[in-house]
């Protein structure tokens, strides 16, 4: 008889998973920073969707320059300049979060609350900058919510960003857990690749920019985490027994 693994921790991605932050959050913050630096760059909605293939803001700026503004790559201080442009972008993103313009996605606050009651550990594994994570948590769940997460793995804490599994390895190591004790919740193909490469069962809740991506290997693909009053739509993989994801559903998915 198979011995069931008991769920001990949930590893959340941030952008696209906790909140739909890319189009009206990060994208606007990048454009505001470009303006402040007197650059005539403008990342429109379609272009930003393409640029999202590269994870990490500094990496994304460099990738954009390589493709659309190669002359600027000649700067002798290129890395420092990108870092300072990105720092300005982070300030704009924090201000946007403070204004409360981006809500959590359906089911996120409910699930976090239930997992806390069940004494399941919460962790974050993201490529975004730590300041962005804390700004989003503060503006949506309140300042104390930062302490609800046992481990927050963010940004440059590992050298290789998703789709590399490094951030998940780092978080698992900090938790002192095996992948078999955890489930990851992601919204993107790059995030799924990272989580699968770290041997994690992965649930996908698709987001604005990611709904058409390839999610082969995910245990289940859903529109969102759902609420009893607003059930999710099941897209692919295992169909949970009810229209909202809770502790019981995550535990079942982890053992499939
Ligand atoms: C999303 C990302 C990030 C954000 C921008 O990561 O790739 O780079 O787009 O944030 P995830 P920074 O979905 O894993 O959270 O500019 O701070 O990198
Ligand atoms: Mg994401």
Secondary structure elements and pairings:
Elements: E1 9-12, H1 22-36, H2 45-51, H3 57-68, H4 78-98, H5 108-117, E2 121-125, H6 130-141, E3 151-153, H7 166-175, E4 182-186, H8 189-197, E5 201-205, E6 220-222, E7 234-237, H9 247-254
Parallel strand pairs: 1-2, 1-4, 2-3, 4-5, 5-6
Antiparallel strand pairs: 6-7
The structure holds xylulose-1,5-bisphosphate and magnesium ion (MG).
Radius of gyration equals 18 Å
Taking the sheet with the most strands, its summary is: 7 strands, mixed
Q: Which kinds of small molecule does this entry bind, naming each only once?
A: xylulose-1,5-bisphosphate, magnesium ion
Q: Strand share of the residues?
A: 5-15%
CATH architecture annotation of the largest domain: 3-Layer(aba) Sandwich
Please name the CATH topology of the largest domain: Rossmann fold
Question: Which sequence of SSEs, written as H and E, runs from N to C?
Answer: EHHHHHEHEHEHEEEH
CATH superfamily of the largest domain: HAD superfamily/HAD-like
Tag the structure with descriptive keywords.
single chain, 256 residues, DNA polymerase, domain 1, 41% helix, globular, binds xylulose-1,5-bisphosphate
């Amino acid at each position: 008889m198979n011995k069931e693994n008991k769920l001990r921790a949930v590893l959340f991605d941030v952008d696209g998973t906790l909140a739909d932050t890319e189009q009206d959050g990060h994208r606007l913050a990048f454009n505001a920073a470009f303006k402040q630096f007197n650059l005539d760059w403008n990342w429109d909605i379609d272009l930003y969707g393409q640029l999202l293939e590269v994870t990490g803001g500094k990496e994304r700026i460099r990738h954009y320059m390589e493709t659309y503004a190669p002359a600027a790559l000649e700067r002798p201080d290129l890395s420092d300049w990108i870092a300072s442009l990105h720092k300005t972008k982070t300030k704009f993103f924090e201000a946007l979060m403070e204004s409360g313009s981006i809500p959590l996605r359906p089911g996120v606050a409910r699930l976090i609350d239930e997992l806390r009651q069940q004494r399941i550990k919460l962790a974050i594994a993201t490529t975004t900058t730590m300041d962005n994570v804390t700004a989003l948590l503060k503006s949506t769940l309140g300042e104390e919510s930062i302490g609800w997460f046992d481990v927050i793995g963010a940004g440059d804490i590992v050298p290789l960003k998703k789709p590399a599994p490094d951030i998940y390895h780092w978080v698992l190591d900090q938790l002192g857990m095996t992948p078999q004790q955890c489930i990851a919740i992601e919204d993107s193909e790059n995030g799924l690749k990272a989580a699968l490469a770290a041997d994690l069962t992965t649930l996908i809740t698709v987001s604005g920019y990611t709904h058409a991506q390839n999610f082969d290997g995910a245990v289940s693909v859903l529109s969102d985490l759902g609420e009893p009053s607003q059930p999710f739509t099941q897209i692919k993989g295992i169909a949970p027994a009810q229209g909202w994801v809770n502790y019981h559903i995550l535990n079942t998915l982890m053992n499939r």
